[in-house]
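Deliverable D5.2: sample structural annotation.
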Amino acid sequence: MTAQGCMKSRDVLWYLIFCGCVVNFMVTTNINIAIVAMVIANTTDSNVTSSSECLVAELSSNSSYTSPDDGLTNETDTSTVSAAITQTRYAWNEYQQGLILGGFFWLHWISQIPGGVLAQRYGTKKVYGLSNVAMCVVGFLIPPLAAYDYRLVVFIRLLQGFIGGLVWPAMHNIIARWIPPNERSTFVTAYTGGSIGVAFTFSVGGLIIDWLGWEAIFHITGVLGVLWYIAWYCLVYDTPDQHPRISEEERTYIANSLGQSVSKRKPRTPWRQIMTSAVLWITILVHWSSNLGIFTLMTQSPTYFKYIHGWNIKMTGVLSGLPHIFRSIFGYLFSVLGDYLIRNLIMSRTGVRKLATAVCCILMGLFTLGSAFSGCNYLSAIICLTAATTVSGAISTGPLASFVDLSPNFAGILMGISCTLSFTAAFISPLIVSILTFQNQTTGQWLLVYLITSALLIIPGLLYICFATSELQPWNSPDGIPRELQTLDSGKAIEEKQDQEMKPLQEDKDNDTKLNQC
């Protein structure tokens, strides 16, 4: 944080955005794991749910069937049940559960563009920080309101979603002002903190619910969000010039790397050019596609494993959460590869973005297709869903980074436009699942869910590979600065520019040395 410190200021920014994404997704998804314990089950809360289609088939063919989660037979362990915490449960059907799960995203899209505009005007520090912590504070209301009416829970989720819509576009605004072009792929992996948040909520959340009751998951995630905001408020600044502790070396490097691609003053937004940009719309399409895929897997995995494979809250949480840890790791490693390819001129920026999109859309679609035909084979389902979730981490190197490539000046607004449309996939997905599986939790209906998801992943991915680009757009600079002067395309170019700037100083130093020798 200082010239003498051991960590660069933009590294501190990465960690705080990463942790902010962890908090954001914990609050976004805590209801997804909690609802399994909030709803009255068809059977006692044993190790498996005996109403599961796959479990019934196994039991009918094998009386000594063993549960895949912990090796216990499907015989209610009364001592375990009696020792468990008595939790309040509600008689919410699949349709009502779908409203609760999807409610977060109904208004989430409305505040996306305002999020980008507000961040451009007031700064990411205020917009991102306050909206993130407000989501956490509002979440404290879910346990007491659930006791009155499920519609009150839906309202709270609507409110959280509306506030949370400001978050993602605001982040792109600060990235455009802090991060050199050849570091963007790696830095955007801070967004994969959301995957860690999902993994924590599903894996650890399942244990928390089992030990302390489902109310505790809302209290714990809320407290963690408040603690994060304190660190964010104290350590983050909107631009390197505003940072009081950044080293002069880092400040100069960032300024030279960005060139004139980011305006020092607030430029006029070229709305007409933005809204008619074909390359922007194809990027938005794959963003929407990848969102549909990841939100389907993220929000529906606990329900899928409970009703199809009949697993309890602890095992459901672990199996739903672990793939998101792999997603975060894969996303970071792939981004390092992407920046390496760009920095060493092995691939163009557009080529790297297309490669990443092929992985996070097409390959993810193929793995989802595999899960569609897994049937009652729980091992196949685990492998395919884990692989699909893992490779989706490449989105940070693909469409998410591309928004900053296309226009650093308006990256927050571009992200806001994209999120406005892309997050509609997040509430469409639960509605599709609730309609297809309402009072019909069978492998055949889940086959349809995953087939639809696969098609909506693969087709947009192919279109992006054929028609997209990630080059800086002319409308990035309404003031008419030539595009070739706005940015530097690689790390080597940056180094060459710095060498050229230092050359006259070195020549003067050499001349002084010769005079001293004389």
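Annotation notes: The chain has a mean pLDDT of 78. Residues 22 and 197 are 4 Å apart (CA to CA).
The annotation will be released with the project's public dataset once the embargo ends.
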